[in-house]
Amino acid sequence: IVDERHQEVEDRIFYDRGSTIKLKCMVEDIVGEQPEYIIWKKGNRMLNYDTERGGISVRTDLLANGAQSRLHIAGATFTDSGNYTCMMGRTAKTQIELQIIPGETAEQVRDVNSSPPMTQAATIVLTFILAFSQT
User: Fold this and answer.
1) How many helices (H) and strands (E) does the chain have?
2) Burial class of 55 by CB neighbour count within 10 A (0 to 12, 13 to 18, 19+)
3) CA distance linking residue 25 with residue 112, whole number of Å
4) 91 vs 48, 50, 51, 113, 132, CA distance in Å?
5) Mean pLDDT of 99-115
6) How far is CA 107 from CA 100, 101, 103, 119, in A?
């Protein structure tokens, strides 16, 4: 998952209330199976066809050896905070925590929370590069 600045998102990202959130999930280099549609979820709720909240759109492009999907959330509110998952069937899955914050700017919070990861397990690989061998 990358943000609107095309920077990889670690396990948590902050946005100001009222922001437009733009996230992109990429699954690349799939070998031995056909790319599938990418699903976005907030918690257990699928967002691809969500019309209840309004202002949410998902666009997925299937490619020859993968797919990319963009999640846009307009006019972010505190209720948009939560865990977001992008997944392609059983091939790939990752999750981030999105926090909508008042008072401070999200950029300030990002700067305070940006520190080198302690271990690879502490971060989520947000751009998938997968290779499967046929057996």
Assistant:
1) 1, 9
2) middle
3) 25
4) 18, 23, 27, 30, 9
5) 60
6) 12, 11, 12, 24
Q: What does the pLDDT read at residue 106?
A: 53
Tokens of 29: 């280099």
CA 112/CA 106 separation, integer angstroms: 10
pTM beyond cutoff 0.85: no
- The terminus-to-terminus CA distance of the chain in angstroms comes to 30
* Amino acid present at 3: D
Name the one residue in this structure whose structure tokens are 């993968």. 66
CB 30 within 8 A of CB 20: no
The sign of the CA dihedral 102, 108, 111, 112 is: negative
Query: What would the two tokens of residue 50 be?
Result: 């969500």
For the chain, the helix, strand and coil percentages under 3-state DSSP, each to the nearest 5: 10, 40, 45
Specify whether the CB–CB gap between 32 and 132 falls below 8 A: yes
Residue 121 is predicted with a pLDDT of 24
